[in-house]
Amino acid sequence: MDLPLVVGVDGSEPSLRAVDWASDEAELRGVPLQVVYACLWERYEGAALARDLGKPSAQPLPQEITGAAVRRAHARHPDLKVTADAVFEEPEYALVRESRNASALVVGSRGRSGLAEALLGSVSLTVTAHAHCPVVVLRGSHDNQVTPPVHGRVVVAVGENAEDSAAVRFAYEEARRRGVPLEAVRAWRCPSHETTDHPLLADTPARLHERHAEETLTEALRDAPPDVELHRRTVEGHARRVLVDASYDADLLIVGAKRRTGHLGLQLGRVAHGALHHSACPVAVVPQPA
Known about the structure:
Blueprint: E1 5-9, H1 13-29, E2 33-38, H2 41-44, H3 46-52, H4 62-76, E3 82-87, H5 91-98, E4 104-108, H6 122-130, E5 135-138, E6 154-157, H7 166-178, E7 182-188, H8 204-220, E8 230-236, H9 239-247, E9 252-259, H10 270-278, E10 283-289
Parallel strand pairs: 1-2, 1-4, 2-3, 4-5, 6-7, 6-9, 7-8, 9-10
Antiparallel strand pairs: 5-10
């Protein structure tokens, strides 16, 4: 059985836009969509308490939130199989648990508690750092859609250790489903202490680093499927800045994140963390076993 695509909702406008995007992605993958609403309101405060105090509930009922999300998904794709669950616990815990049985997880960049959608919310950050499946965070202007493509390009970041990269394999599939080219980017830098003042040797250290980046890219893409149009690009600069720049002309930016067994902290590298906070397009973070 195909694992569902899971989308987290909280009734906010960003989360409803996430439903639009997730509906397109589920339709593209040919898998069911599962809507998950998680909140502690019903457990610790609840509508009954609000009525006892003579005050209107500050938040819609769970079934109202999930019902709106299901209707929105069906309005977009009438034949899509959609289920909904409401759980009364911290959203980050609920979504990480759901990720164990999901093909991918979609969340908005920020929900009800956010002051600005331009900032990454704590729930999105925590889920991305601990999920067991790829997580797509809807950054930037994604136009609420997967298809048709807006920019017609998927970008994947290629790291230093690119052998058997889960992120690269995920990128092949995303580009194939969308029918768009995949651009694989490898950033490189020449440390200042390796430069030389001799005019005939000035470019040698930089060229060595660039060549190493090219070799890493070639190794990472050695098993590229023939039906995916592939573009390779090496760029001098900080990886975070290179990827953020690339995100302005992409429909999806894909980065990997190593998962360390027994590690309790946020399991995101600096590159993934920077992309999540500053990307101009949706970011897919793909877990990679360390």
